[in-house]
Fold this sequence. Notes:
Layout: H1 9-33, H2 38-50, E1 53-54, H3 55-62, H4 66-78, E2 82-85, E3 95-98, H5 100-121, H6 126-146
Antiparallel strand pairs: 1-3, 2-3
Helix pairs in contact: 1-5, 2-5, 3-4
Amino acid sequence: MEPKEKTTATAVWLVLNRASRSVQAFAEKSIAELGIGLTDFGILEMLLHKGAMSMSMMAEKSLLANASMTSAIDRLEERGLVERTYPANDRRVRLVQLTREGTRMARQLFNQHQEDMERVMEDLSAPERAQLRRLLKKLGLAAKSLA
């Protein structure tokens, strides 16, 4: 007879925390192996999927401090991956957008990262992934409402 599975809130939190740390460590390692830092990867991925945006909006969405965002954008601009532009209708705002090379690199990096994440999740069926996503979202919203 198998021991009864622990379902206390603390037991679930411990498993969730350990799983999260393990997946995060793998993600950081796989991104580092692509030759880019986690912050820079996140910025490239955000611009690839969301399009041009202001640095303040990027900082807000990525939870980075404005100074950290400026340093990261400077670094990516030096590499020719992003450029700062002014929209025609509002010269007060500077937007950051991917260059042609930045778009190419961001797609390549994101595709490899997606393959790596598939490897991590390969033991979960599609219905299990969907259920896990729903449950984690539900848990996150509940925790957010209590914070």
